[in-house]
Design a protein that fits this description.
Arc Repressor Mutant, subunit A; Rna Polymerase Sigma Factor, Chain: A
């Protein structure tokens, strides 16, 4: 009898980092694969921030265009690609909302006066400075976490994803996501204790949900 020909092993899917390296060389197929992998998550995040679906679509296009033009901005040693991309989408979505708010103030007569009448008094300059200081220290503290801890917390902080969704995005087991989130939050609480108050039971809110 003739022996059956050996079945070649199944090809494993390329990692995100591999695809980005190929995009750096101008590989359009690799770019398309990254888009297929993350376009839904990117649009979902942009839609949460922008609300308007057209703005959200523009934001996603801008983010992926930035990836195509400057793929070297992604550093795999600082975290996963999903975290980097969704952070980029979040920043661009916030910028889009701000630009639209400025445009409306310029084009709608009396928009500033109406907004002042309808909007409760905002914080004073001292409060805004304090918020900026706290935000800066939070970002600095996040930068001191391990790459693994920062990845899961950033997805939750910027994207508002649940732990189950973070598990699906990163490909990590749910138990691993929970343990990394717990360890990361514990470290953040230690680093930010001077801001949050020592021993008062205050918790760092990251938006992580089960």
């Amino acid at each position: 009898m003739v022996a059956d020909a050996p079945v070649p092993p199944a090809r494993s899917a390329p990692t995100d980092a591999d695809l980005v390296r190929r995009v750096t060389g101008g590989d359009q197929a690799a770019f398309a694969e990254l888009y297929d992998r993350y376009c839904r998550q990117a649009y979902s995040l942009a839609r949460r921030v922008c609300v308007d679906p057209e703005f959200a679509e523009d934001v996603v296009q801008e983010a992926f265009l930035a990836l195509w033009r400057t793929p070297g901005r992604f550093d795999p040693e600082r975290g996963g690609f999903a975290t980097w991309l969704l952070t980029l989408v979040h920043h661009r979505a916030v910028d889009a909302v701000r630009r639209e708010a400025v445009r409306r103030k310029r084009t709608v007569p009396g928009a500033d006066e109406v907004a002042e009448r309808l909007t409760p008094p905002g914080p004073g300059a001292d409060d805004e400075a304090l918020v900026g200081l706290v935000g800066g220290q939070v970002r600095e503290a996040l930068g001191r976490l391990t790459d693994e801890q920062r990845e899961v917390i950033t997805l939750a902080y910027f994207g508002g994803y649940t732990q189950c969704e973070v598990s699906a995005l990163t490909g990590l087991p749910l138990g691993t996501v929970k343990s990394r989130t717990f360890a990361g939050i514990r470290r953040l609480r230690g680093m930010l204790s001077s801001l949050l108050g020592d021993g008062d039971g205050t918790e760092v809110r990251t938006g992580v949900q089960r």
